[in-house]
TrEMBL record:
It comes from Aliivibrio wodanis. GO terms for biological process: cytochrome complex assembly. The keyword Kinase does not apply. PANTHER family: THIOL:DISULFIDE INTERCHANGE PROTEIN DSBE. This is Thiol/disulfide interchange protein. SUPFAM superfamilies: Thioredoxin-like. The lineage of its organism: Bacteria, Pseudomonadati, Pseudomonadota, Gammaproteobacteria, Vibrionales.
């Protein structure tokens, strides 16, 4: 076999392997997981990402009839694509609490300072303890929580208008 063909074949095989691995790393969209749906948000006390002297707990969810808890991270590429839509939800009056999952606090702060924060507050969860208690297996994951702290719905994947209408909008209609 000619050297040019061998190199081309090797590059092709590498490209196929790379694409398979890359697509495997993306969080798969799912609302079929019922993990924690119907359960109370676990108790926690974790710092606020912008000011670690402020400790946050499950009472965050008692302030509004419905609150979204959005699990995200600065290192999460699809979280960044979702961020713009979360700003739209905030403008519509939807209360969103962020859960910064297994992240570097400075990187998370930089993302929020650069893009603006759609969150009322951001829980800093560097070890992922709260996320694990919630059964999170990928980012972004969004939970809908009522004023009693009961998890009503869960969706894993990046939210956009279509997914919002399918997954969450009915909860907010009066």
């Amino acid at each position: 076999m000619k050297p040019v063909i061998k190199v081309g074949l090797a590059i092709g095989i590498c490209a196929i392997i790379f694409s398979v691995l890359f697509t495997g790393l993306e969080t798969k969209e799912s609302s079929t997981s019922t993990a924690m749906v119907g359960e109370i948000v676990p108790t926690f006390e974790l710092p606020e990402v912008m000011d670690t002297s402020v400790l946050l707990n499950e009472s965050l969810f008692q302030q509004q009839p419905l609150t979204l808890l959005n699990v995200w991270a600065a290192w999460c590429g699809i979280c960044k694509t979702e961020h713009h839509f979360l700003h739209q939800l905030k403008e519509q009056g939807i209360t969103i609490i962020g859960l910064d999952y297994r992240d570097d606090r400075i990187a998370a702060k930089q993302v929020l300072e650069k893009t603006g924060s759609p969150y009322q507050a951001v829980i800093f969860d560097p070890r992922g303890s709260l996320a694990m208690d919630l059964g999170v297996f990928g980012t972004p994951t969004t939970f809908l929580i009522d004023q009693k702290g009961v998890i009503l719905h869960r969706f894993t994947g990046a939210l956009d208008e279509k997914k919002w209408q399918r997954e969450f909008a009915d909860f907010f209609e009066e």
